[in-house]
Amino acid sequence: MYLCKALQVQTEFILKKMKFNKKSIGHLAIFTSSFIFGIYLPLSKTILSVYIDAQTLTVFRFCGAALLFWIASLFIKKEPVPFKDLLLMFGASLFGVVINQFAFLEGLSKSSVIDTGIIQTTTPIITMLLAALFLKEPITGRKVLGVLVGLSGALLLVFANGFKSDESSSLIGILLLISSAFTFALYLTLFRSLIVRYSPITLMKWLFLFAAIIGISIYGKRITEFDFVNMPSMVYFKIAYVVVAATFITYLLIPIAQKKVAPNYDQYV
Q: Distance (Å, rounded) from C-alpha 173 to C-alpha 157?
């Protein structure tokens, strides 16, 4: 719980004392979540379809993160959530967690890590366009430049690889990754007011609770069929990283970033 509280409260306090402005805190949250995500991609790829299928790993993410966020909520001031906001949170859960993560991990299982990383860079572009459409945020030259700089980094990986084709990426995998990026961009844009209205823990405990209920309802049988006894210990370590770091911590940082910067700067996790 100390880690959770440090990320949400103490880190912001320290950064403010160091005279970091709000955008700097938001950018630091984005950078940290992106760094964790960068490790998450190749790490999860090594166990997908070998030790665990994408649907089971996704349900583990939902249930593990829901448990962590509800435990963390015991250590913060309780925020009342009216029924109408619970309905909005259910919708946010569908776009930002359920559809997004089911499509992402299934797409990753059918695609290469490099292709997945490249498609990930389209999320800020989609979010910028949706923010202009729904939130009437202007598309400035500075925003475009920032998106292009981020995209160029991913393209450099392709150049460094000598434009070699990757036969491990299927069309369905690419389409799933694109749909995942699009749904997360919709979440960042359509539910921005909800994201900034509640603390990260309050918001995420409900989003992941809804996601866990949906995930268990659809793929509960697969969890019972998972070989918990004979699985190598390294697989459990990697699953723990996916649940704790790549889900709990990154989804804790996303609302912090949302409160500090415009939605098109947020990254996909």
A: 19
Number of residues in the chain? 269
What phi and psi values does residue 52 have, to the nearest 5 degrees? -150, 145
CA dihedral 113, 117, 120, 121 (to 10 degrees): -170
Q: Which string of b and e fits 237-268 if b means at least 16 CB within 10 Å?
A: ebbebbbbbbbbbbbbbbbbbbbbbbbbbbbb
CA dihedral 53, 59, 60, 62 (to 10 degrees): 150
Q: Where along the chain do its domains lie?
A: 22-76+85-265
**CA dist 98 → 21, 141, 169, 174, 207 (Å):** 33, 33, 23, 18, 9
Q: How far apart are CA 97 and CA 79, in angstroms?
A: 21
Task: Name the token pair of 66.
Answer: 């829901």
pTM over 0.85: no
Q: How far apart are CA 15 and CA 37, in angstroms?
A: 23
Residues 157, 183, 58, 195: is their CA dihedral positive or negative? positive
Q: Dump pLDDT digits (tens) for 143-199.
A: 666 656 655 655 555 555 444 444 467 889 888 998 998 899 899 888 988 988 999
Contact 264, 255 (CB under 8 A): no
What does the pLDDT look like over 114-142, one tens digit per residue?
A: 878 778 777 777 777 777 676 666 666 66
Interior angle at CA 127, CA 36 and CA 203, nearest 5: 60
